[in-house]
Amino acid sequence: MKEYSFYPGCSSQKGASAENYMRSTNSISKELGFKLNDIPDWNCCSASIGYAGGGELPRLVLSARNLALSEQAHPKQDVVATCAACWLATREAKERLEHDKSLFAEANIALKEAGLQLKNDQGKNIRHMVEVLIEDFGYEEIKKHVKKPLEGIKIAGYVGCQTNRPFGIAGESFENPMYLDKLTETLGADPVKNYDKKVSCCGGALAFSEPEKSQALIKDIIGAAYDGGADMIVTPCPVCQMNVEVYQDQINQKYGTKFKIPVVYYSTLMSVAFGQSAKEAALDGQVIPAKQLEQIAAK
Hints:
2 domains, 8 strands, 10% strand
């Protein structure tokens, strides 16, 4: 069984916005046969608030603390995150501290106050869960576990910006990454071809501070999915999932649209296709019900 040092991130906690992401991920981990070992006493990666006023060193040290705890608890295991922001923050911290000896020394001075030391072991990678699924298992292996193909569903693969830049998935185009399309086909559904908003930004935290700007971006993301005939949208990012799903009523009111399209995680699609129940796939966590997936899960 493959094992990974797992950084859950704040949004995956019980009652948080991406709890359903965590639940569906757990269901597919059992099916595929890998284990996620939580980093003990992990903390927030600082995400966008760290850029707003926390300062560079405190922001990097928050992720460095998680890495140091991972080194202690799960030596030599790759660090894996489901959240795009957590993945980016942690990977950036590791790479910045590897290449800046002065910054690395300062980070360890701060960590010493908490009784920790970061070695920044070169053998450990910081990976998004999508990377693990594609690189360590692959589409053919995933297909072997499909028990209930998602036939008759057309899906727009919304990658978003954070899981595509600056790092992205190995071998994928920055402008037109195809892994969600390939995964959709592997699970028996039909991807929307030429979905031109697949790497567009949803506005991120602007949804709170400048909602009009964010909602204009979201409207175009959803509109392009509808134009492609999509029944639902799939994404690997908790912020994208939340923004594109929960603001549809406000967008409809503002723009006169009639959007009501489910926005789901790839892990939700996989869980249903793997024959898991609606509860295991965390379909009860949808704000806009994914009725087609519910029907397949009930078979």
